[in-house]
Model the fold of this input.
Amino acid sequence: MRKNKILILALLVCLSIPVRAQNTDNNIIGIVVDKSGNPVYGASVNVEGGAVETRVETDKDGKFEIAVEKGQRLSVVSVDKGSTTVVAKTDGPMTIVMGYAAQTIDVGANRTFSRHESTAAVSTTYNEEFNKRSSRNISNSLYGYGLGLTTLQNAASTGLMADPTFYVRGLQSLSSSTPLVLVDGLERDMSLVSPEEVESVSILKDAAAVALYGYKGVNGAILITTKRGKYKTKEITFTYDHIINTQSRRPEFVDAATYASAVNEARGYEGLGARYTPEEVDAFRNGVGSGGASRMYPYLYPNVNWIDETFKDRGVSNKYTIEFRGGGAKFRYYTMANLLTDKGFIKTPNANDGYSTQNMYSRANLRTNLDIDLTATTKLKLNLLGTLSESRIPGASVNLWDMIYSIPSAAFPVRTEDDSWGGSTTWAGTSNPVAQSQGAAYSKGHSRSLFADLTLSQDLSGLLKGLGANFRLAYDNYSNILEDHSKTYTYAGYATSWTTNGPFYTAISGGNPVKWVRVQVLTTGRANLTLQVVSITIARFGSGMCILNSNGIMSIVIHTD
Done:
């Protein structure tokens, strides 16, 4: 009897071998690559119409293995590369290319199309393309990216504080050409979004692309999509950037002698006498280093290069970023913490005890994006972004470049003989850019913001194929606070003329004795609650959306495919 049991068990084992071999034969092995041939990591592969439990994800080499019958169709979806559907082949390894036609086009309002489905003029650029510049925000990362997007650099006191101006397909009107900017489908400030947290940026250019936005999209639209988690993966990324900033294309101003000659020439055209005698022009021209009159009277006939006296050649920035990305079978997460510090170009910021007058900007970002599959047809998304930033500028928010453009090199010395700040009767010492950058203390700005949105999506394909509904709740809160820690100062100078005995001068003075100003003002602050009551989508037929925001205005948008 014992021998019979052993024979039966051995027979069952033998019978099970071909069954397992048959199951393995149903598995196909493949690789998912993008249009450049690079492996696509974290793409979701499933049998079309199959259960969620049968879904698999590609590994870091883009490879996957899935059980499928010959002739069935595989659906491949990637967060950043789009989606495509292919027929399964069991005669060997498959190579699935997420080509240009499979690229996803996001037109907003939870509507996405693949390239082969859409005729709208939309260009998309991805993180691996624009995130190469260590920029302060996504705005500064878009130079040269996005077909049809014109990006113009603006000037600023620190290396990273200037936000660019955008035009979609050039100037649209004489009044305003600013495009609509949406971050994850909501109208928000893109200057607070770091490039590391952005997955893609889409530029909507023509009427078909911006039809959903009505009059707000008349100048085009810029859609920013942030990163999301990936199923069944774990990633930790840390980056550090050390940035050296330079002031490119510095203007060149004439020296004091050229300025004096030009003033005399201009007065001559108006029939007036010369402002400066030939001896005074020569005093400006000889310069400090030549032993001429300017060396004898450096405070009476100065020749000041205001740019070199105010600014240094280089500034330094540091950027730290850590990202956590991954998920399980029904849960995905993406978390990023970012710290940016930027110091400007003030030449001598530490001339005072206890504080610095250096231009400074620092910002900390914390983002968390969560995706939860509550059921096979119910999805929940939560997006959170918090930012803290602080800036510091010399004086009472003065514009040093405006002073440099206004004050000629012959106006007055940086400091007088008794070490007072320089000034004159024509140009007040309060316009002395060096004095303002060192002797007027500083002002500080603080910005705090919180952006949160929750989206609940329900697939109703069981009732009608392509039918779905979305509920979204968004809350935005931000404030800007200005602290004025500036102080006043006195200045002195000389009113000069040239006589037969040489220069003759009269001492002048002005300004206010040192007085500190300490004022804290809430310049702007706002909290906004947006409730998207219902967004119903019927694939291939059309969709409608009703939005109610906190100020009681309701808008309805209807669009068709």
